[in-house]
Amino acid sequence: MPGIDEKDREILRILRKEGRITLTELGKRVGLSPASVKNRVEKLEKLGAIKGYSAIIDPAFLDEYVQAFFELKLAIDDHTIDPILRRVAKLDEVQSLYRRSGERQILVRASFHDTDEVKAFAGRLKRLFGKNLERVEVTLIIDTFKENWVSCETGKR
What we know:
This is Lrp/AsnC family transcriptional regulator. By secondary structure, the protein is an alpha+beta fold. Helix content is 36%, strand content 19%.
């Protein structure tokens, strides 16, 4: 990416795993002063490399016991549906939203209190996409064996 160097990438790799690290500790780890780290982090935020900060919450603590994937097959998959995707992304239930290759171009992961909410959400998706939607397949998650919100390292550049 233009505008960032290897120190910036090192900062990003650490923040990806340890979002609550102090600037002082981060500076020690990358060999920079806290002020330099602060400037770099602010630059990375402005560039969009850091998209935000959040806590990873177990959905059960929010009484969201039903996790589901929605696979959507679209009649037309071009950028005319982007405004619809942006609306879907803002829905409270949605945890992740992807455009992907293959027959079912859109993948939505969402959390619910019960299966009635799952059905209502599927209906809302149908209304939002309208004639652009050919089919919705819903898969309920029965058990989670691994969920890693931190991307694995792919090696040095």
